[in-house]
Each structure stands twice: as C-alpha cells, then as structure tokens.
C-alpha cells in the first residue's frame, strides 16, 4: 500500500497549484465628534442665563449639521464653542440659584424679625 492512501490530508496545506488570492478591505475610522445637543437643550430649558443655553443649542445644531456633511474640523469648532457656552451657562445658573436661595431665606428671616418687632411694640394681637 502506498502511504498517501492511508494518511488524511493536513488541514491548511495546499492541495494543488491553485494561486492564493488576498482581499484588502479599507475601513475608514470615523472620528466621533460630540455635539453636546442634549446638554445645550437642558441649559436652554432650565438654566438659560443671558440666553447662553439657547446660543449653545444653536452651536450644537451647527456642529451636528457639519458632522452630517462630513466637515469634521467645522463640527469640532462648533462643538468646542457649544461646550464652552454650556459650561458658562451651567456655572452661572448654579451660582444664581444659590444666590437666590440665600437672598430668599435671609429676606424671609428679616421679614419675620420685623413682624416680631412690630408685634412687641404694639403689645401683641388686639
């Protein structure tokens, strides 16, 4: 018996003179550019100090439009501006909220002290 008849062929070994074909696939990596549109919408609805939230929303929409067209550099520029405006809107909104709370409670305290003082001068309720 011949040895080739009893041994099975080895996987991956070439069976004949067939040429090997290669395929090259070029996959372009798409740069992800955040457009901050949700953050801008939040600042527009809740913390719209000096319309900074609305302006940030406009820049976010411009950034999304540039990204859809394929202009990555333009999208990054608009997104950077939207991010800066969102940060300012958030910081100013938080500061003004804290100042309002402080003024509200100190005003309420002063009001209650004045009421007590007036009641003592008039001798209480009549």
UniProtKB/TrEMBL annotation:
InterPro entries xrefs: CD225/Dispanin_fam, IFITM_antiviral_protein
Principal localisation: membrane
Keyword Membrane: yes
Transmembrane domains' residue ranges: 36-59, 87-111
Locations listed in the record: Membrane
Sorted UniProt keywords: Membrane, Transmembrane, Transmembrane helix
Any Pfam family the entry gives: CD225
Family: Belongs to the CD225/Dispanin family.
The protein, known as: Interferon-induced transmembrane protein 1-like
Organism per entry: Acinonyx jubatus
Gene name tied to this protein: LOC128311719
